[in-house]
Amino acid sequence: MSWITKTFSSSIGRKIIMAVTGLFLCTFLVVHLVGNLQLFKADNGAAFNAYSEFMGHNPLIRTMEIVLVLGFGFHIYEGLVLAAKNRAARGNQRYVSDHIEQNSSWHSRSMALLGSIVLFFLIVHLYNFFGSLRFTDVPRDANGNEDAYALVLAAFKNPFYVLLYVIGQVALLYHLLHGFSSAFQTLGLTHRKYTPAIKFIGYGFSIIVCAAFAAMPVYFFFFK
Amino acid sequence: MFPDSKIPEGPLAEKWDKHKFNVKLVNPANKRKYDVIVVGTGLAGASAAASLAELGYNVKAFTYHDSPRRAHSIAAQGGINAAKNYQNDGDSVYRLFYDTIKGGDYRAREANVYRLAQVSVNIIDQCVAQGVPFAREYGGLLANRSFGGAQVSRTFYARGQTGQQLLLGAYSALSRQVAYGKVKLYTRSEMLDLVVVDGQARGIITRNLITGEIEQHAAHAVVLATGGYGNVFYLSTNAKYCNATAAWRAHKKGAYFANPCFTQIHPTCIPVSGDYQSKLTLMSESLRNDGRVWVPASKETAERLRAGQIRVADIPEDERDYFLERKYPAFGNLVPRDVASRNAKMMCDEGRGVGSSGLAVYLDFADVIKRNGASWVSQKYGNLFDMYAKITGENPYEQPMRIYPAVHYTMGGLWVDYNLQTTIPGLYATGECNFSDHGANRLGASALMQGLADGYFVIPYTIGDYLAQTAPKPVTTDHPAFKEAEAEVNARVKKLMSINGTRTPADFHKALGHIMWEYCGMARTAEGLQHAKREIQKLRKEFWTDLKLSGTDQEMNQMLESAGRVADFLELGELMVDDAYNRNESCGGHFREEYQTPEGEALRDDENYTYVAAWQFVGENQPEILNKEELKFENVKLTQRSYK
Amino acid sequence: MAGSNPNAKPMNLTLKVWRQRNRNTEGRIVDYQVQDISPDMSFLEMLDVLNEDLLRKGEEPVVFDHDCREGICGSCNLFINGRAHGPEPGTTTCQLHMRKFSDGDTITIEPWRSSAFPVNKDLSVDRSAFDRIIQAGGYISVNTGGTPDANEIPVPKEIADRAFEAATCIACGACVASCKNSSAMLFVSAKVSQLALLPQGHVERKSRVENMVAQMDKEGFGACSNIGSCAAECPVGISLENIAILNREFLSAKATSNNLA
């Protein structure tokens, strides 16, 4: 085994992968959110469709898409490996009486569960939009762009999707509330001066991003 | 004829250097052909094991703990002395030597103590290089404090956890040698006997505390670093497992036991709260710098206080007796440990003790809190106050602490010569296990110094002198002496398991502790000691006919472990009583009521007792033979202490 | 006899204690009753009472590790009512006192549970994995003698204090016991940061962290997921900051050391 594989198969190495991919996925969230905010523009989806068209065909974006898939892939794979290893480390005999809730927060202990919910959401989400846009013929709008807006409109009239999307965002919120600052801790990026700020930004980031994403299905369901 | 103490000739300051030159050296290529057993992994043991392994010897290190780092050295709070004179306040090797000799009430060897003071400076260098995080000044240099009434600031410390940090330093050095394969570590292994082959120490017998297996281990030399025997009193500041078994077994195999009656009682401990009490907790004596010690002036007030009819706050100032300030106006609350302890006992004997048991005196911080504020006190003593509150459930900021003396350290131990070799060739004793450096009383912050001096800087030289005269041939456990010793240990274990009586090891241990504390504790009398001797003999008989154990010896059995240790304490206790009876004087930690000044102070008899009492075992239930090593003082003048 | 507080009433308690013959057998919870427990007793003294009772009845006492009983040796290690060292923060089992409990309480007592800490018997576990991690590099390689004068290496007070705080770890294993991942990161990080902070430790800084982490993984401890249970339950208050330092040391060592293995 070379030093690289050894480094990244160690417990800390795996955590570093989690942290780096996690933070990378946070940047993806920002890009994704900024684009999607155009859904709220009162132009019947013209701007959103243009943006969607651009995202679907720009070579740089298409390249980054591969990186993004890798980011997700590593984050999910390492997350599952770590969860399994950590479970094994505890051993077969569990505590008869365990009050871990008295010394730590529920969401910090439930990253694998929250991550799994987010993953389920992600699969449905990809099926709803990415799949349709990439692999089927979608009608075009007045500007000749694929009418992604119509897909959104249709999907978010379905109360089950709306509910699932909101749950997905709540899970993501709790995942990020721990994950954001945890990534900095894992990378050793802590300092008495700056760590409180990182924690604050992490909370703000998680709440704003997840609330904004959750607002979209709700908005379309009730107001469109 | 007393064995030669091997003190080198020449001026005091040159003895050690000369001796280092005169000892024989083992050829570097031959060192790996010698095996050394080190029993105990506290400061003295871990430092010796690591240093010997670094030199190239093959070391086997034994501890009954699950890890070497658990040894009781870890609990030392105050600090470690060294004659560095970093504070430019007049310290020197000679001053540290002088203070230690005087503090020991002139019952220690000059040459040993001088060497201790000499190597003290190397200890600090060594520990800092290992990464021991001593307290520092803002400029980055090491901080010092004055400790235990010393007039210079020579104590190095790591907050209130100096013992822990020093032990972890020695443990890290030991761990490094384990990683190199030069030390083989045996944890949860208790030494139950010494193996002597042709008059030379050649191995030990151990019991594996997990499996119960009895094992034989051979080596060219054996170092005992097994600590003190304070737990003979049942209640002491020692850890629960601290015991005398290794040293006592060695004694019964021929090693003399020196000055067993010299025990140190520490004045500032948290008092006993009930019969269930399992150990006593020490609080740093630095508390006496600002706390005032008192009891109610009258017995009646004390009685009403104990019955809960009045509260402390109800006692007016003029009904409080600040007895140390009253009796010792010059030193006040800062009198030495033995004086403070004895006076607390006197107050309680007069019926003026406090707490529900009546066995406590107050240590009051009200004045200093009024003067400097609670936050000042908290900054200086916060951790001690917290500890007190945790244990007693009382808030020492609001009501005075209750304190009482407790057994803390034993100055006596296996007799060793200048090389730290016992009277059995090839058997060495280091640290609290030996008797060598503290005389009749140990100064604060000197125990850590001695443990590390012995392990890092003395034994690595002196053991070579012995090994160089031993053929570098492999030693094995083939000799019949090993089988014999193993059979003895086995028989003893089986015997303990088979008595099937009614009383537990703790029952006997508590009973012994009670006898020792009453008659061989802070104040002793000839009559009391004779009574104690009879009581111990009686108790010992009962032990061997009425002990109750359960389970088997082929598994983890903590009661069996305890029973073996109590059995040895029951023998050692009697020797302590004999020694105290023999020593018709008061000195240091040994106070005989018959020998005191009209003011009630200790009265030494330098003419007749300036000697080390080294006891020789001759056979079961036979009186031990007293051997006397005369102490010669060529450099210091013997004076009587006065704290008036 | 109650000690400091004449009004303290003795308590009767039900104990649910983990009993296990040795590491190869199954264990189970056994119920015991203890009577007349003084609130001034320490938790271990309460267990002493139970054990004396059991022995008198000819039964086998409960094995548990303990020694100094003043919170510094790190021997005691009981999981009490679902918490490492019990309910009182910043306290080892031996310093936990019965006044924290009430008459009639049921108390569940278990050993540390981690695959790296196999049970010896009853409540005693084997923590030698910690020793092996230290042996892998938790030291500064200096032989006895030949060291420079102690004041030749000035250390800023703030750094010395932080190193000291990390160095106060007592290796009790509460961090591992309370971590849902059985991670030993708090223990390892305490030693790594102590020696990384001090200038004396810089020489072997890279190899130390590489070797100690490799040994930690080999022992079967889990990975840290920054939950914080360890620091919350640590009786001596070792901070999570140390884990960040460990991560940093590891990353920079792996990125820059010449070690290709």
Q: Explain this structure to me?
A:
The complex is a heterotrimer of chains A (224), B (644) and C (261). Chain A is mostly helical. Chain A has one domain (8-88, 107-223): 3 helical TM bundles of succinate and fumarate reductases. Chain A contains nine helices and no strands. Chain A has helices spanning 3-9, 11-36, 46-57, 59-90, 106-109, 111-135, 148-155, 159-186, 195-223. Chain B is α+β, with helices and mostly antiparallel strands and 644 residues long. Chain B is built from 17 helices and 19 strands. Chain B has helices at 15-22, 43-55, 93-103, 110-130, 162-180, 245-252, 299-306, 323-327, 337-349, 366-372, 374-392, 447-467, 480-498, 505-519, 526-546, 558-582, 606-609; strands at 35-39, 58-62, 80-81, 155-156, 183-186, 189-197, 200-208, 214-218, 221-224, 257-258, 263-269, 292-296, 320-321, 361-364, 401-410, 413-414, 427-429, 611-616, 625-630. In chain B, strands 5-2-1-9-17 form a five-stranded parallel β-sheet. Chain B has a five-stranded antiparallel β-sheet with strand order 11-15-14-12-13. In chain B, strands 16-10-18-19 form a four-stranded antiparallel β-sheet. Chain B is globular. Chain C is built from eight helices and seven strands. Chain C has helices at residues 43-56, 128-135, 157-167, 174-178, 185-197, 205-218, 229-233, 241-256, and strands at residues 11-19, 28-37, 79-80, 83-84, 106-110, 119-121, 124-125. The mean pLDDT of chain C is 95. Chains B and C meet through helix 2, helix 4, helix 5, helix 11 and helix 12 of B and helix 1, helix 2 and helix 3 of C. Chain A: This is Fumarate reductase. Chain A: InterPro entries: Cytochrome_b-558, SQR/QFR_C/D. Chain A: It comes from Hymenobacter glacieicola. Chain A: The chain crosses the membrane at residues 16-40, 60-84, 111-130, 160-180, 200-222. Chain A: Keywords: Membrane, Transmembrane, Transmembrane helix.
Mean pLDDT of chain C, rounded to whole units?
95
CATH superfamily of the largest domain in chain C: Alpha-helical ferredoxin
Main sheet record of chain C: 5 strands, mixed
Give the CA-CA distance, first to last residue of chain C.
64 Å
Strand count, sense and barrel status of the largest sheet of chain A are: none
CATH first level of chain A: which class?
Answer: Mainly Alpha
Fourth CATH level, the homologous superfamily of chain A? Fumarate reductase/succinate dehydrogenase, transmembrane subunit
CATH architecture of chain A: Up-down Bundle
CATH topology grouping of the largest domain in chain C: Fumarate Reductase Iron-sulfur Protein, Chain B, domain 2
Helix content of chain C: 25-40%
Radius of gyration of chain C: 21 Å
CATH architecture of the largest domain in chain C: Orthogonal Bundle
Shape of chain C: elongated
Globally, the shape of chain A reads: globular
State the helical fraction of chain A: over 70%
